[in-house]
Protein: DEAD/DEAH box helicase
Organism: Enterovibrio gelatinilyticus
Amino acid sequence: MSKSNPIQMTPSKVIHLPIDSIKSEVESVLAHRNVIIQSDTGTGKSTRLPVWASKLGRVLVIEPRRVACTSLAGFVAETLSGEKGKSAADRIGQQVGYAIKFDYRFSEDTQIVFATPGVVLRWFSEDKLATFDVIMIDEFHERRAETDLLAALLVKHNAHRLIITSATLESEKLSHYFNADLIKADVSSYGVTISHHANDSQLMPSGKQLELRVKPIVELALARGGDILVFLPGKKEINVCASALKGLEEEFGADVIPLHASVTDGDRKRALHSASHQRIVLATNVAETSLTIPGIVTVIDTGMERRTHQRNGRTALALHAISKASAKQRAGRAGRISAGYCERLYGEHAPLEAFTPPELEREDLIETMLASACCGFTLDELSFLSALPDKSLNSAYHRLITMGAIEDNGSVTEHGKLLYPLPIDSLFAHLISGMTSKTNKEAMCDLVAILQTPMSVWKRKAGDLALDNVKAWNQTLCDAVTSIAVLRGEQPEEIDVDLLGLDEARRLAVSLREAFELPQWEAASCFQRESFLRNVIDIAPELAFVRREKRQQAFGNGISEVVLSRDSDFAPEYQAAIVFDQFHLAGRGAKQTTSYATCMSPLPYSWLADANIGNIEVAAQVERNGEVFDVRHQVYAGRVIAQFEHQAEGASLLRAIVNQILDGALMEGVGETSRTQIAYWNLYQQLIAEKPLAPVDVAEWLEDKLSELGVETVEDMELIGDDDLHFDGIPSWEFDDFVQTYPLRVVLPELTLSAEYFRFKRTVVVHHVCGNRKDGPKRWELPSWNGWRVQYKKASRVVDVK
């Protein structure tokens, strides 16, 4: 390892942290072996360990969240010695830096770099992280897909000293996997009093009316004193709760502060630094680990989070109850400065999962498989902490093969190398690269930038007037057209735009356009909607959905189903659409999860038919001037998207001829004779044969026979005689006796019956076919059927015939 001058802390900035008690032990072990640090959040491991490790060389710290990267880099920069008079912000990028999507502040001389897993994976694909000596994976217990893959790659490559921090995972299992020593660091606590606010002790967490349930608990905590941390599932719930708590800000003089991945730097600093007045921090589970919020006395835990899972072969984000491990982590955020309180909005004995399942077990593996291939390894070559699901592996493999991103042996293609560096889902990267014109490519870059921004960038104003005005501007109410216009600043005033979200989307658009050597969005080319959407269908036909015939709010593509979201103005007259984006809400069971389509582009059936998607089915056959034609339906996801006639040929023509024979239109009498002979042959096999043969289907037998005779056209039938279609079944000397003993049809005065035989029950059931006789048949007028029980069935009524 390349050693460098160790970083020193500025004495005035040094604050004693619980992790400091194990400093000498960590430095001693780390000099020779990998190390695992197990400790609760708040011990100081994220800020102290990188500094201690810098004695061994350049340090890379992998943080699961962007907010943690920038905040921790700033905190460490404050504690390190540097030029006098310089602020922490000025120091970032010198001794300490960070790298997140769209924001890099470090140089080759930066000794400690905090980075998100996605960024680090791309660096690994370039040079196997050759410029770093020590790699630290922080908060490994979260089991993010990218950190699990990085761990497997680092273990396989075996060229760095590793530090792994974990709060809850099995320590022995980790020690064996990373070939590391385990060191534990305890954090002192003043104790946390846990209360549950639920009528039922087994009540599970719920996302319904969170703001109404949170507000009274916040009032209670404000009266108690100290800062309050409220855990909410996402930005949407944070904004709703912030609005509901506005009155409390004025009444108590408290400050309501949002904390999520896309907050402003100002809000982030307000959340992470103490203040003289009470604070109410509304946070996602970004505050569960990595970040320590000072001054928290009360934690309010809604028990909800947004978690990824597989939905129809793709990764979806949906509301989900947290695990017991997460609940423990959240409660541990209180009790650090004084006696703490945790108020849970669910039952004390709610059946939560013990641990949150690793992302690799609940997400699709497309991105993971492509990333691994770009790093020089197939997933089969790597050892993971837990096994990857075979179904997910097979699905990812076939999807990437279809995209042309990997070879049959799993190695990456040139197209895959183009897709991987783009900071977007591989499907969207594939859509951009597959666009056949420059204008379509530009349009897709801008649309993807909107869709891949984690917050909602735009929303139509409410009301019929606003809808009418938007429709006058965007006649088809195409969400894709509106999204592209919003990014380019061309939307009407009826569209409300989130400026923070728009800024992030435009930064992504800049990155994508640069990657594809396109002009920037300010100089965007006009695109033609039809050409654009037809291009999408050609590249990714699975994005095309059609309305369900009976449930008009639902759409299917033959694989999955989505429901029209209120966020889309998709018009009722359209029967098909490209669904670019979805969100998912989970019900009580996994199968009750509902997918909502949020970005829809209407299109006519004809565009789908032109793309040759769906299956061709023969719906009927018609005869015209002696020729047979198939009436063919092009069917997609259960809907007929096109109908046309095609001259019958091959198997279809033979089927038409067979139907005419059986109907008596061709070779009169042959169809009925064949039907009778084959029916009795099947019965003979059932009742008499020692080694019964499989039943013969009369239509299939006739088709095979005509094929053997070389029939290819209707004219060929002129060369076929009745004897050519004779069925060699029951020998002629047995046939009459067998038919008399075991008739399939019995005709009596005013009553016609069909007979069904059950050999092992020795029972004959005669079914009413037609006739006006009120009473059933008498036993004496039926065939002898010696030794057989006889029953008569009419409708659902069955009686024994005596």
About this structure: The longest strand covers residues 576-585. The CA atoms of residues 52 and 422 lie 34 Å apart. Residues 11-185 form a domain with the Rossmann fold fold (CATH 3.40.50.300).
